[in-house]
Amino acid sequence: MIKFFKSLYFNQQFYIYITIVSTLFLLSFWFRILFTIAILVSLTLGVLLLLDFFLLYRFKKGIIANRKVADKLSNADENSIELYFKNNFPFKIHIIVIDEIPFQFQKRDFLEKSILEKEEEKTIKYNITPFTRGEYHFGDLNVYVSTPLKIIAKRFLFDNNRMTAVYPSYMQMKKYEFLAMSNRLSEFGIKKIRKIGHTMEFEQIKTYVNGDDVRTINWKSTAKKGAIMVNQYQDEKSQPIYSLIDIGRVMKMPFEELKLLDYAINSTLAFSNIALRKNDKVGMLTFSRKVENVVVASNKKTNLAILNEVLYKINTDYSDSDYGLLYGMIKRKVTQRSLLILYTNFEHISGLERQIPYLKLIAKQHVLLTVFFENTELEELISEDAENLETIYEKTIAQKFFYEKKLIVKELEKHGVYAILTKPKNLSVNVINKYLEFKSKGLI
Fold this sequence. Notes:
Immunoglobulin-like; 6-stranded mixed β-sheet; 4 domains; single chain
């Protein structure tokens, strides 16, 4: 009985009809003829209510519905959710759909309305954009069904407690993979860099074109052919590349709803996929108070899945990161010269000065690329017009911090450490650009 009452709802039309009947009875106090009309309307409403009730509750499986959601969702991307419906009632129905979306989205107003003809099937699609990795639990899919009379509605419940996981942005990874394989990286700002092999492994003799290294000219072939010919060598392959992700408090800062750590994680996954396609070895580790989540560099395709699982579980803490511990770990474990991409953030030059001795030591043995972030909110403040003395002070301080970020880049380059200062949203593009540049120059 309780289940029955929980499934029964009265539509807005029911209350409109009740209001009309009540008004007629009220007016009949002064106009006696309206009393008879009110009785007739009441009886008619009662008959229609019973008919509506009979039509709805006669068919226990009058509608079929389910939610189609992927087992894994992509972080910081629009993910499509499909709601499927099939009308098994022998008449047209009106439906109101309320999907209980995971609490992380804080969306309490999801509601869709539709009409299904007899035996009609329909799909309703909507998009959700998560900004936090982890488990997301969908609640009930509530479907309120009404007949064409629309006096009452019956609630049907489907797909209770469906769980899905939000992983690092595999959509971004696939996008850059497709562009790399189709040589369309420049459409997203990734430079098309001519690669020149510098190993001694000979590949072929070919005609010189602009951009070829003049040191590789084959003078004998040039004399025979009457055109400039050059030796072409194979590119370096299977070079170890490690992503070093700082999970200290500096990476907890959010920009556009996404933490700096998640930008770094998404970039690591996208970049690692490209590097594997180039036959290089990819690995990673995270560090803060201790070094953990170590994945040894490998060019096996399965390594990408291992990286994805490790990246999924990473979280920041509120501690200061120990760069001395990081250096010690790299010295012991990474014995071959490698490209190390360090994802961190320095807001002040004083913060860099404490770590620069360790970065210099790492850069002596490896190619070290330090990646840190522009404060885009400061840029917005700087671009605003100064309207009063307080705004002038704020703009001056913002310009000081903005200029200090550029000084950090110069300071790193002075000590032989490569650096990228990037907006968070451009992180993946800039890292892939730098990787391709290093490959073309033979630095790795």
